[in-house]
Design brief:
The chain is an alpha+beta fold. Helix content is about 30%, strand content about 30%. It contains 9 helices and 9 strands.
Length: about 260
Amino acid sequence: MSLTARTPAQLRSMFGSNLRTLASDYPSISALARDLGINRTQFNRYLSGESFPRPDVLARICAFFSVDARVLLEPVDKINPAAGLITSEYLRDFMGPSIQPVSEESLPSGFYQFARRSFVQGDQYVRGLVLIKREANNTFIRGYEPKIAMAMQGIPADARAREYRGFVMQIEDGFAATVARRNAMTASFNYLSRVTSFQNNFWVGYVARTVRESSSSMRMTRLVYEYLGKNTERILSCARGAGFCQLEDLIPFHQRLLQPEDPFR
């Protein structure tokens, strides 16, 4: 159908559908509306396709989600954003024309339990939960820092401050993830490769954080991922047990993969 043949109702419906897709990553619509500076009732009207935003509000929404005004005209997953840093012409021959996709077979979508030594408490370990999700050909990672770890560093411990996100790309026989907290407050680089096991659901590698060198703290340590998929019972159990722990609190196979007695190389 040509653009001139679209009715206002069809355009409102397209925008509402796109906005619902963009908003799906946010656990709270109320919080999202507040972040956008839009009345919740009015935001619901946009979501349902009942109303268009004013031009200034549309510009605010587009800037927030890093899209353009074509969200009024075509599905958001078909809108090609302008070339970013990694996909720029300068890096295209080195990084590829897009982020190297990660197949479902090599890294399934769903929840993962992870374990590593703590960066801020070297005699303790951290276990947590991350989500691997896909949009079009892109693979993303999302999780939350433990509240206590944030408090120890004098950083606000609310969910917004603790949240981190990143992108995942294929690297030889494993995958790499670049992860950051909101506004790039902190960042880390992760590399993992699959471990041969009975269930074939473990990955091991390392994580490096972007901090100044210090004789009293680490910047790199081993990392273990275990795929939980959609096992609600295990996911909730891992979420409740997230945070600092002792080595002996980790499951034996995690302990073995982390090699606590062997210096990291």
